[in-house]
Fold this sequence. Notes:
Number of helices: 13
Low-confidence stretches: 199-216
Number of strands: 0
Order of helices and strands: HHHHHHHHHHHHH
Number of domains: 3
Mean pLDDT: 77
Amino acid sequence: LQHLLENKLRISDYLSCEVVVQLVEDCLKTTLDTSHPLIFEKSERVYEGMRLAIMLSYDSTVRTDVLEIVHPALCSHIFQFQLSSNCCSLTSTSNASWSFIGVKIVFEVLTFLDNQSAFSKPHSLLYDDLLKDQRLLPFFVCGLLSNDECLIANVLRLITSAHGAIPSHIQHIAKLMSLWIQELKGEKLQENNRLNQNHDKSSPVVDLSAVTSERNNINIKNSVDEQQIKELDALLEKLKCSQTLDGRFSEIMNVYEMKITAVESENRQLQTELYSRIFNQQKNDCSFARFISFGEEAKKEAETLRQVLRKAEQKNDQLSEELKQKRSEINEQQCRIEQLKKSLDEKLNLVESLRNAENALRKQAECLEASLEVAQKEAESEKIMHGQIREHYSKMKVNFEAVSARLIEAKEDIKRMRSNIEKLKVDNAKQEEVNDQLVSKIANLEEELRKHSEIQEMIHKLTGRK
């Protein structure tokens, strides 16, 4: 529908407007119940119905039917239900799952009423009344704070285009927005603290598991140092147990004890550094494994994209072949149309010549009928004169026989002419039937040619877009 409207085409030429308008009516008359488990799906159905109604209203041929279906009472019912039952009206950020789609429904209704205010006065009056409702302000705040670009654009357009109804409440809207932002910040901080606590609780477990998994390797690496410390401890014990200790020897023992403690502390530091390095190495291994998995997924996606591209190229080749076939068919149809036009012209010329012959025969028949009347009058006059002039009987008899013969021939000629006229009428009727059939065939072929040209145009557009 968007493609048709952008190209300034009529929807009724491509779709059944009655079916689409009936679909709008079915969607907008969906019953909404906040306690129903499918409230989100039903709200989406109403939202899509409003979007479809807005799109259909841009077509002037369908606008009247849309205004009859989406009347002001239905718009007011949908709007008031959202204002009274939507959680957004309570100015709380913790809304139900269907609350956001309800906000979008409210602004779709306002957009529809705003678009139709120039064509329908009841819709214009309802639009002005709905903008004055104070319960609408939280919906503006929710729309401005949403992540939906289309919804934000609708809200800003309604705020800037409203005739003083919404701009007068800008301060109130700003206050509500600040409250919502503060609540969102508080919830975000609580969530971050919760995540940090969970991380602190889980990280020692990870460190202990990493340490225990690598403890044997650490002990093996530091076995030499531990053996030396043990030997020194044994030597100290022997020296302490010995009774030949003197002051000098005790000083030496104290020095060695200090060295041993220093070595042990250094060993502990090295072990802690080693544990941390092992843990970091494990993290790096995990990240590297994730990177490898991401690379494999990217390769798979690239392969799928290549397959899709191959399929698209194959489909494009098929479409080009089909286009060539359609063009050849169109050329054949044009040749057939030209041949049929030529045959039609020949038939029309033949019909015209037959009509001229028929007119000539009619004129000849009229002349023969006139001569027959004249001959009849002459015969009557001769009969009258026969009684008066007997001396000319022989001459008149000869003349009478001649006239009778001419009369018989004329009658036979008239009969033949009438039979020829009947035959010509029958032939003319058959020829007219043939002409009507040819005209209908030509009309059908022209219609097919027009459809082929439209299909060719659509194929050109589709291929051009791809």
